[in-house]
Structure formats: structure tokens, C-alpha cells
């Protein structure tokens, strides 16, 4: 992760202005732009910052990089309402103005939801869990409920995942805090919708892993490609199994 | 007829293919129009992967020029990777545009930009996926007019069977003229069908329609003649030349992709054409004369492009950018203007010239400092005279000394192997040159971490150049020469480790040679290779020489010609070349004399640059009614007002 703090080295080539303000940004990946990878988003965001003329800080050196720090990006192909990043500014700015300027500089589908001035503390630590919604077109509620029940009844659900160093067996059950199924009323075709709360662990358990677990533990049969959407990420209330708002501290502080 | 978007059918399949974002569209500054709003509709294709095709300036310019007219609609389509090709075939999804995901077959025209011949198989994939018959003669009135442009279209004969038409030269004005013809023909109720509209285009003199020309061959396989087979069709088809670049400041709204592409920068074409006269260089021959964009025009395009895109790098594009008459002023004034904004400027194409180091310093002062690249092209001074690349060894050494003493650590040198008259010794000289470069670098910088990368490409003779008659070096000799050079460099204890060596083996160049100087009989080979699974021939991981060689042998079994005949054979003056009926403006006798001058036994004769010396009668300006348009204008850029 890029550090946003620190005094620029005046000796280095391309000396840069110091960071005077840190902003935390919640953004969404919607519709067809959910197919942007994290790297795709990062490039698009950097260009939007330049188009919008946001006074962002840069690292010094031969290849100056803008001061942007990404937290826990969602996998390519998953939509999200709750992605987060932080930027370091060389001038204090009004968060709502920054939100508007960035949102209009980004393509539709990559949308800035909220910008707040960062309160002290490490932001990544607040992102303890994610709440996902996974739409399963063509799957009946009965089937979805049955496989959910089987999954929850198991102590451990082992799946195989292809990692950088080859296949690895991971347990996708322990990280799942809550899992339930309901029917999508808006759709004429049957379409079950899963609501899943997953604790952030290493290696991370992603929606695809949960579906793989439902297949191996309960025999889930998919009819069409599922669509996963991250609805929230933040502190985990282990009593209720719900995910809180990670920006609440920043809003309260300012 | 309304045309529905294919995206709802495509979307559920996208998670199953690699890099799905390349099929999604939605780029910043992309245009989609209602289907019914336009009278003439173009699908523009770059026949390579999206990541290669999207940054292509030609396609971006035509896309914008066409879409600016309210009666024209233009969308883009690219080659799909083989995983996507399979998904599309399995699910009955035709070739689509990335803008509104409309089927390519529904458009009036399919314009394909061929920068290289290695896109031909991808072009066939697209036609087939689009459900457009591969052969022009099999197409009906519901099929688009399939039209080629780009540098390879200066010899479209190898793909002539698959094309309805081809256009030579600058596309900006001719695409609009073609659109007018199609608009009028449609408005009249499409009289005479497909042939009638093609005939109208052919009669205009600016569009080549291959099927209106018959090619006959001599018993030994050479072409006997190429003749029009309809009244009113011209004997020769001329290229198009855009004058006054300042009045065409495109792209005005450059596309900014979400996917990663091969060029992540905003490019401004600072001039078009080149008259340096390098004898191997097709681009320099077919894009004459030089037409400069003014310093003010460049400044305005840079400012607009950065505002519209957010790119942090600007490339000043041309065939030899340091030759712009006001390049020093451009570099200095853009450097001043973007001081402190982390915007970097780059000159992608520079000659060996100490002056360029001053430029390079100017360019890197606001941002990144990458390596410096110079292209001496030939290893020995003798060979550099043969190719008319006038740079002495002392020039080169002085240039790299300047680079290393200004703090650059890495210099890249580009050469070619297989040039006419080349011997083993000419190639071994590349190694000697590289050693002298390192030695000089160590001396002037006082450091030992000096690097030099030698990059070598195989020479492929191209149509419309003085070397169009030359024998191409066979791939065995090419590989052998490069191996000797590599071994000699590696064995050198003092310098070997400081010299990087990059080269390609000779086989792909032979196929490129076949496709570059081939005639209509080569179309059979392309089709056979494609049917055998040939795709993405420009990608070393997909290219198969064996497939090409085998299919060439089968396809030409009944002909008196073969792969060697098309590639390593030297041509005579009197032979009809497959592209002789296509007019790049160059006088054929001038080209032949220049070819003979390069072979002069007492040392090759050099040709100067007509920008600074009197005209040497290459023929282009009088033939095409054009003139050299260069500065200096003496104008200056004003600083931008701070927002």
C-alpha cells in the first residue's frame, strides 16, 4: 500500500509539494463496468483526477506517482457499491466538491458515492468484513435454500483455488458469518438471491469461492452466470453478523 | 430495419473469457448514435486485439471525422481472442462493434485498417464471425462494402479476393467522399445493386475495386498485365494526400480506454510524411511530401488532448519527429508550459543526432526519463550508405557520449539484418559499434553501470520503395548471421555483459515478405492458413511458420511460383509488379535509379532530403499536385492561464 504521509525528499528529482489533507473515498462499480479489473480502475481513476484538476500529491523521483492508496479491491466481474480508496492532497479541498468533480470525470458506471476528510487511524483495519449479494438467475428459491442449509451445517467446506503458485485448498466455510437465500421479486424468471457476509481473511474468500463451496457441500446447480455485488464493507458486528459503515468515524470527527 | 444490441446476450458470457473489459466498450469520448439517425453507417476495424487496435491513430481519427457528420454513424470493432471466438461460435453471436454492440453485417461499410500484413488472418476471422462471405464475389446486396486502408493497402493484392475496395493514403477526406457516394446511391433506392455503387466509387479514381481489374500471368509465373475490365474504370488508382494539417486537428476527442493498451499516452501527429529517403522505408516513400503541423497547432492539440483524456504522457508523433523545423521551440515551450504538472513528453521516433540529446533533456524535465533509442539501421558505414541512412560512426558516438554525459544510463540501438548487399561482416560491425558505445559511455560518465541494448529486426522488402525489386535474405542465413553476432558479443569479457541483445528469428519475416510483395495468388494461401487455424500472426506465440510454409506449398502446387519466388527472388526492371497499377506518386524510373544507385560498385550514391536541398524528382508532388508544407512559423506558445 502506498503511504500517503511523509515529507517529500527535496533532493530527489522532481521534488513535490507536501500532503496537507487526506480524503477517503467510497466508489461503486456498476453495470458493464464491473468488468474493469482493479488495475483498469486505477488507471481510469488517475486520469479522472487529472481531468478534474484535483490537487493530488505525487511521490518524487524519476517516475512520480500520484498519492492514491486502494483498500481491498473487489474481483474483476463483480459489481460493487462499496469500494474504498484514499488520496493525499496538496491543498485542502471541500469533500463534496471533490466528489462531484471526480464523479463527472469518471465514465458512467464508475461512480463516486462519498468523499470524507480522513480521521486519524489506519483505514484498512476498519474493513473487517463484506456483505455480498449474489444473484443466481434460473435457480429456484427451494434449491438455493437447500444448498445454503447444507453449507451452513458443515464445519468446514474445502475448495480448490488457483493461486499464483498453483492450486491451493482453502476452507470457505469459516469466513462466512451469515448466509441466506431469498427470491428476486422483480424478475419474471425464477432468480434466487443469496445474501452473504464474509469476514476478511487471508487468503480472502470471494463470492466465487462461496459458490464453489455451495456446489461441493450442497450440490448447487447454476443455470446461468451469477452476478455478485458487494453491498458494503466495514467493521463486523459479530453479535448480529452485520457489516457497519467504515466512514462513520471520519464523518463524526469532522 | 432496426438493429438490436447484442450486449444482453454477450454479458452473461463475459465472465468466461479473458480480459472481458476489452469487449465492453464505454471508453471515455466514445460515440454512440441511434441507428435510425444516420444515412450511412461505418464499422471500422483494426484487425488486431483491442489492446493493440484501440490506440491506433488512424482509426480514432476516421471514427471522429465520420461521427462529426450527423448523417453518418461510425462504430469500432477489433479482433477477438480465440477464447472469445469460440464463445461467439458456440452461442451464435456475430462479430460486433464495441460501441453499441451492433452486428458488423448490419453496417453499410466495413473499413479495415491494415498497418501490417500480419492482420490478414484476423480480418478473415472477423468476416466469418460477421457472417459476411469471405470472397467479395459471393457477397450480396445485404452485405457491407468491405474496404481496406492503411499502409498495407498500397499492395492489397494478396487480400484482393476478400475486399470490395481499397483506398491508398490519407483517409480523412476520402471516407467522406465515399460516404457521399453511398448516401446518394441509397437515397436513389440502390439502383444496380452492389456492383453499381462499387462502379461509382471506382470511376471516381480514388477507390480501387479489385474485381474490376483482371490479372493475367506469363507461363513462368510473372504477371503479364493488370487491366480494367469495365468501361470508366481508371488504369491506375491514386493515393490521397491531406494538405494543411492545422485544419485537421484530430483526434479532438481522443478515446480513453478502461482496458490497458499498448500505448498509454495522448499522441499528436506533428507532421506527416518523410523525405529522408531511407531506401528500405515504405512509410517514408508512400506518405510524401512532408506536411508539418505548426507549433501553435501542436500546442492547441496537446492542451485539448490532456484536458480531454487525463493522460500524463504526450507523444509527439511522426516518422522522424526531431526533423520538425521548430522542434526545439516546441520542446522548450511545452516543457515550460507543463512545468510542475507531472506531464511528460516523448518523441517516439528520433534519428541519431547529438541535438536530440538536448531535446531529450527538455522532454524529460517534467516527468519520466525512459531510455533513449536511436536507429542507425545498418552496422557498417558502407551499408548505411546503401540504405541512404546518412549517419557516420563518429556522429553516433558523439550522440551517445552526449546522452551518457547527461546522466542517461541506457541507450537502445535499432538495426536491421538482411539488407541488400549485406555480408556477415556488416552484421558483425553492429557488435563493434555496441562495444564502442559502452566504452564511450564508461569514459564520459566515469561509471560502470552503462547499458546498451541492441535490437535487430529482419529486413522485409516493401512495395513502392527502391528496394521493391530486391531479394529478401533467406531465414537460414539471417539466423546464422545473428547467431554469429550474438556469440561474438557474449564472448567479449570487457563489454559483453553491458550489451543486451534482442532479435527475432528470420522465419516470420519471410511470411511478412510473402504477404508484402505477393499478388492475388497469395490470397489462397491466406485463406488456407486461416482455415487451418492461423490467427494473430503478428504475435510470436500464435505465429506458425510451418503452417504458412505447408499451406503455401499446397496452395501453389499447380503454379510455377513458390514461397522463394515471392521472397528471395530479385525482380527485373521490366517485370510487372503486383502494385504497379496503384499510384503512390513515386516515379517508377526514379525508384529504379535509386535502387541502382544503392548498388553502385564504387559505393552507394546518397540522396539528400528535399526539405533542405533542391527537388530530386521522386515524382510525388507534380503527380499528386501537392507541395512541401513546413515552417518555421516563428510563432510562440503563450503560457496557459492557471485555473
Count, helices of chain B = 21
State the CATH class of the largest domain in chain A: Alpha Beta
Gap between N and C termini of chain A: 25 Å
Percent range for helical residues of chain B?
25-40%
The secondary structure category of chain A is alpha+beta
Q: How large is the radius of gyration of chain B? A: 25 Å
Given as residue ranges, the uncertain stretches of chain B (5+ residues, pLDDT < 50) are none
Beta-strand residue percentage of chain A: 25-35%
The name of the CATH superfamily of the largest domain in chain B reads Cobalamin-binding domain
Work out the count of structural domains of chain A. Answer: 2
Give the uncertain stretches of chain A in residue-range form. Answer: none
E-strand count of chain A: 12
> What portion of residues of chain A is helical?
10-25%
For the record, the count of structural domains of chain B works out to: 3
Largest sheet of chain A: 8 strands, mixed
Q: Determine the oligomeric state from the structure.
A: heterodimer
Whole-angstrom Rg of chain A: 20 Å
Looking at the structure, the CATH topology of the largest domain in chain B is Rossmann fold
How large a portion of the residues of chain B is in β-strands, by DSSP E? Answer: 5-15%
What is the end-to-end distance of chain B? 49 Å
Summarize the helices and strands and which ones pair or pack.
The complex is a heterodimer of chains A (254) and B (643).
Chain A: E1 21-29, H1 38-52, E2 68-71, E3 79-89, H2 95-105, E4 110-117, E5 129-137, H3 141-153, E6 158-163, E7 166-171, E8 176-183, E9 191-199, H4 207-218, E10 227-234, E11 236-237, E12 242-243, H5 248-253
Parallel strand pairs in A: 3-10
Antiparallel strand pairs in A: 1-3, 1-4, 2-3, 5-9, 5-10, 6-7, 8-9, 11-12
Helix pairs in contact in A: 1-2, 3-4
Chain B: H1 7-10, E1 40-49, H2 50-53, H3 57-67, E2 72-79, H4 82-90, E3 109-113, H5 120-129, E4 145-149, E5 165-166, H6 172-187, H7 193-203, E6 213-217, E7 223-228, E8 237-238, E9 266-269, E10 271-272, H8 282-286, E11 291-292, H9 295-309, E12 313-317, H10 327-337, E13 344-346, H11 355-364, E14 372-377, H12 381-386, H13 393-405, E15 410-417, H14 424-445, E16 451-458, H15 475-490, E17 499-503, H16 507-517, H17 522-531, H18 545-555, H19 563-567, E18 582-583, H20 588-598, H21 620-624
Parallel strand pairs in B: 1-2, 1-3, 3-4, 4-5, 8-18, 9-12, 12-13, 14-15, 15-16, 16-17
Antiparallel strand pairs in B: 6-7, 10-11
Helix pairs in contact in B: 5-17, 13-14, 14-15, 17-18
Amino acid at each position: 500500500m502506498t503511504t500517503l504521509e511523509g515529507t517529500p525528499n527535496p533532493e530527489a528529482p522532481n521534488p513535490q509539494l507536501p500532503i496537507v489533507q487526506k480524503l477517503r473515498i467510497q466508489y461503486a462499480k456498476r453495470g458493464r463496468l464491473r468488468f474493469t479489473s482493479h488495475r483498469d480502475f486505477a488507471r481510469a481513476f488517475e486520469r479522472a483526477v487529472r481531468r478534474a484538476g484535483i490537487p493530488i500529491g505525487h511521490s518524487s523521483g524519476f517516475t512520480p506517482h500520484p498519492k492514491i492508496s486502494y483498500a481491498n479491491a473487489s474481483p474483476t466481474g463483480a459489481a460493487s457499491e462499496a469500494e474504498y480508496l484514499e488520496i493525499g492532497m496538496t491543498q485542502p479541498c471541500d469533500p463534496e466538491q471533490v466528489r462531484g468533480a471526480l464523479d463527472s470525470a469518471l465514465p458512467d458506471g464508475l461512480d463516486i458515492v462519498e468523499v470524507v476528510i480522513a480521521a486519524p487511524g489506519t483505514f484498512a483495519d476498519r474493513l473487517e468484513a463484506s456483505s455480498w449479494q449474489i444473484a443466481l438467475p434460473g435457480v429456484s428459491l427451494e434449491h438455493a435454500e437447500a444448498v445454503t442449509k447444507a453449507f451452513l451445517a458443515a464445519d468446514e467446506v474445502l475448495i480448490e483455488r488457483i493461486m499464483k503458485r498453483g492450486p491451493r485448498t482453502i476452507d470457505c466455510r469459516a469466513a462466512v458469518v451469515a448466509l441466506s437465500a431469498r427470491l428476486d421479486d422483480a424478475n419474471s424468471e425464477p432468480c434466487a438471491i443469496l445474501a452473504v457476509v464474509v469476514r476478511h481473511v487471508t487468503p480472502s474468500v470471494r463470492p466465487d469461492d462461496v459458490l464453489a463451496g455451495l456446489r461441493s457441500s450442497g450440490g448447487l446447480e447454476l443455470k446461468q452466470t451469477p452476478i455478485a455485488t458487494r453491498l458494503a464493507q466495514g467493521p463486523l458486528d459479530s453479535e448480529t453478523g452485520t457489516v457497519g459503515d467504515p466512514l462513520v468515524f471520519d464523518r463524526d470527527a469532522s | 430495419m432496426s438493429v438490436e444490441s447484442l450486449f444482453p446476450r454477450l454479458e452473461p458470457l463475459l465472465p468466461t473469457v479473458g480480459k472481458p473489459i476489452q469487449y465492453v466498450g464505454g471508453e471515455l469520448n466514445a460515440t454512440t448514435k441511434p441507428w435510425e439517425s444516420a444515412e450511412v453507417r461505418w464499422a471500422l476495424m483494426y484487425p488486431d486485439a483491442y489492446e493493440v487496435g484501440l490506440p491506433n491513430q488512424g482509426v480514432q481519427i476516421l471514427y471522429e471525422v465520420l461521427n462529426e457528420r450527423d448523417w453518418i454513424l461510425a462504430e469500432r470493432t477489433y479482433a477477438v481472442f480465440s477464447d472469445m471466438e469460440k464463445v461467439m461460435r458456440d452461442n451464435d453471436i456475430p462479430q460486433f462493434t464495441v460501441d453499441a454492440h451492433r452486428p458488423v453485417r448490419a453496417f453499410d461499410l466495413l473499413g479495415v485498417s491494415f498497418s501490417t500484413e500480419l492482420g490478414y488472418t484476423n480480418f478473415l476471422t472477423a468476416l466469418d464471425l460477421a457472417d459476411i462471405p469471405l470472397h467479395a464475389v459471393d457477397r450480396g446486396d445485404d452485405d457491407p462494402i468491405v474496404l481496406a486502408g492503411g499502409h498495407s493497402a498500397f499492395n492489397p493484392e494478396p487480400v484482393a479476393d476478400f475486399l470490395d475496395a481499397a483506398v491508398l493514403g490519407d483517409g480523412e477526406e476520402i471516407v467522406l467522399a465515399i460516404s457521399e457516394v453511398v448516401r446518394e446511391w441509397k437515397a436513389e433506392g440502390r439502383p444496380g445493386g452492389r456492383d453499381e455503387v462499387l462502379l461509382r466509387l471506382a470511376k471516381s479514381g480514388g477507390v480501387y475495386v479489385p474485381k474490376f481489374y483482371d490479372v493475367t500471368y506469363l507461363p513462368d509465373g510473372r504477371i503479364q498485365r493488370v487491366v480494367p475490365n469495365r468501361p470508366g474504370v481508371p488504369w491506375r488508382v491514386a493515393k490521397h494526400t491531406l494538405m494543411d494539417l492545422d485544419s485537421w486537428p484530430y483526434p479532438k476527442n481522443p478515446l480513453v480506454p478502461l482496458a490497458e493498451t499498448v500505448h498509454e499516452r495522448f499522441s499528436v501527429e506533428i507532421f506527416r510524411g518523410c523525405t529522408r529517403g531511407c531506401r528500405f522505408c515504405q512509410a517514408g516513400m508512400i506518405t510524401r511530401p512532408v506536411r508539418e503541423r505548426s507549433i501553435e497547432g501542436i500546442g492547441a492539440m496537446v492542451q485539448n488532448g490532456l484536458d480531454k483524456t487525463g493522460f500524463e504522457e504526450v507523444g509527439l508523433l511522426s516518422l522522424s519527429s526531431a526533423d520538425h523545423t521548430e522542434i526545439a521551440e516546441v520542446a522548450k515551450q511545452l516543457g515550460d508550459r507543463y512545468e510542475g504538472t507531472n506531464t511528460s513528453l516523448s518523441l517516439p521516433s528520433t534519428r541519431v543526432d547529438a541535438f536530440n540529446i538536448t531535446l531529450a533533456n527538455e522532454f524529460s524535465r517534467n516527468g519520466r526519463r525512459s531510455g533513449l533509442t536511436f536507429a542507425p539501421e545498418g552496422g557498417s558505414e558502407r551499408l548505411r550508405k546503401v540504405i541512404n541512412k546518412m549517419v557516420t560512426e563518429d556522429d553516433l558516438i558523439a550522440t551517445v557520449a552526449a546522452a551518457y554525459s547527461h546522466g542517461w544510463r541506457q541507450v537502445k540501438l535499432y538495426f536491421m539484418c538482411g539488407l541488400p548487399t549485406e555480408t556477415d561482416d556488416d552484421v558483425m560491425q553492429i557488435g563493434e559499434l555496441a562495444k564502442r558505445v559502452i566504452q564511450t559511455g564508461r569514459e564520459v560518465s566515469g561509471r560502470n553501470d552503462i547499458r546498451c541494448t541492441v535490437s535487430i529486426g529482419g529486413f522485409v522488402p516493401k512495395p513502392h520503395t527502391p528496394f521493391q525489386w530486391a531479394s529478401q535474405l533467406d531465414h537460414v542465413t539471417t539466423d546464422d548471421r545473428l547467431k554469429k553476432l550474438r556469440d561474438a558479443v557474449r564472448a567479449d569479457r570487457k563489454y559483453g555483459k553491458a550489451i543486451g541483445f534482442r532479435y527475432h528469428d528470420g522465419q516470420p519475416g519471410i511470411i511478412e515478405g510473402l504477404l508484402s510483395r505477393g499478388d492475388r495468388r497469395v490470397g489462397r494461401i491466406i485463406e488456407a492458413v486461416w482455415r487451418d487455424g492461423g490467427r494473430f500472426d503478428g504475435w510470436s506465440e500464435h505465429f506458425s511458420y510451418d503452417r504458412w510454409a505447408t499451406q503455401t506449398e499446397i496452395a501453389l502446387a499447380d503454379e510455377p511460383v513458390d514461397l522463394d519466388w515471392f521472397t528471395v527472388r530479385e525482380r527485373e526492371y521490366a517485370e510487372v509488379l503486383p502494385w504497379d497499377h496503384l499510384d503512390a506518386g513515386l516515379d517508377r524510373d526514379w525508384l529504379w535509379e535509386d535502387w541502382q544507385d544503392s548498388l553502385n560498385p564504387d559505393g552507394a550514391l546518397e540522396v539528400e532530403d528535399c526539405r533542405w536541398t533542391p527537388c530530386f524528382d521522386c515524382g510525388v508532388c507534380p503527380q499528386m499536385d501537392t507541395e512541401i508544407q513546413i515552417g518555421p512559423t516563428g510563432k510562440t506558445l503563450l503560457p496557459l492561464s492557471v485555473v
